[in-house]
Amino acid sequence: MTGNQRAITEDQRQQAKLIWDYHQMHHQVGPCDVAIGLGSHDLGVPAFCARLYRAGLFPALVFTGGPNPTAPERFPRGEAVHFREHAIALGVPEQAILLEPKARNTGQNITFSREVLAATGMMPERVLLVSMPYMERRSFATARKMWPEAEVICASEPLEFDDYLKSIGDEKLVTDDLQRLIEYPKLGFAIEQDVPEDVHAAFETLIRDGFTSRLIS
């Protein structure tokens, strides 16, 4: 956590971990036609993409994302550009990477990446989405809405909750993504996901405790 963040209580940590666990899709990762690294503030996404590429799970990789709306200074040339550079540094050949540098949200990540692939003649049937760990379920729900004919497999860097909190420094993010998972289907951005009662109760508890800085209005 950063210096201006108060330490969370053990109860709050448990509530946040419950939500974190729910976000994980636990898909079996196997060979796919293409992988899409979804833009974010987390270099764990391109690092894990590079690891899976070196394992031979897909022949082509799309990085998608423009400037990060909440932290534009982190990747000033855009998420996809920085992700591509990081993956190349980790051994992914340049010719294996396609770039989509305009998307500003998850729906655009999916839609624009699909357009980039189509422009090269690729019509993948099995797509691997690589995201931050707490974005797996929303990425899945969005892709099923925007790209229903594709088989979608979701994956993220395999980290434990506490390790990820140390690396990212903001436990509030698990609450804001659950809110989007709940609200976006009403707006036509994603398919609905069943939210268990204990997960919903944990979300409400954290909101009452003040974990509201990144909630949508």
UniProtKB/TrEMBL annotation:
It holds the Pfam family DUF218. Residues 49-149 form the DUF218 domain. CDD domains: YdcF-like. It comes from the Bacteria. InterPro entries: Cell_Envelope_Assoc, DUF218, Rossmann-like_a/b/a_fold. This is YdcF family protein. It comes from Streptomyces javensis.
